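General statements about sequence and structure are easier to judge against a single worked case. No coordinates are needed to read the tokens, only the vocabulary itself. The sequence in question and its structure tokens are set out directly beneath this paragraph.
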Amino acid sequence: MTSATTRGPIQVDGEVFSNKRVGAYQHLTLVADGIAERTRPGNFVALAVGGATSANLLRRSFSIYRVRPAGVYGGTVEIVFAASGAGTQWLADRQPHDAINVVGPLGRPFALPKEPVACALVGGGYGSAPLFALAEKLRERSCAVHMVLGASTESRLFGALEARRAAQSVTVTTLDGSVGIKGLVTDPLPALMARHSIEVVYSCGPMGMLAAATRVATDQGAWSQTAVEEAMACGIGVCMTCVLPVVGDDGVTRMLRSCVEGPVFAGDKVRWDAVGTIPAGTFGAPEVSRQ
């Protein structure tokens, strides 16, 4: 298969292969031929939810946990999610062979180092899911991989056991101390970075966690990449609901679309304190009149 045939997203009528509960989350595997071959770590898919007659017109976007390009039933795509609303609950209720329409892979993936370096992969809750495929790609480049996984409590951790196979070291934190270190996932990060001479920090999870991971990386002189969690209504850059302020190489702030220009951004370029707003001086923003 040539590179021309494996570039860009496609829309396919997928089918549920398996759907199982993992702690507080749902692990859904879909047969979706053609998407797996195009996927890189950090990409996401947008799923139609609710069925053909549903009032849920907007798709739901999910980070890709892993893909398997070939198999008896065709290529598969795996996602992990929390059933927190009508759309995700509908997904959680799907059974093998149920049909789900899939668009993907979407978004800008993680950038990989050109040289072997030590990397920290920081995940919050099920935000850790896309980090496992990333860890595999980093190991292929002879990068040292160290994972830090955190959640509010043990049942909301994802992949702690898998991480021990994917990384050279694993640090686990929970806010309630039910397992691992009690505290925030970023609390042990400075010491870990110093101990292993970390040069790149990758993170995926809640926005507050991403901001904190970026601050730690910047303070330690490391390069940071974050996969942001912004609500994406269309997933293809049309609706503009997932914009956030990002500083360009020219120093100008622009409102970029998480689904197209992201979801992966250089952490130190995101204006974390202004997420959810259009900060003054943003390119294209209306000027505020002064009385």
Notes: The first helix runs from residue 35 to 38.
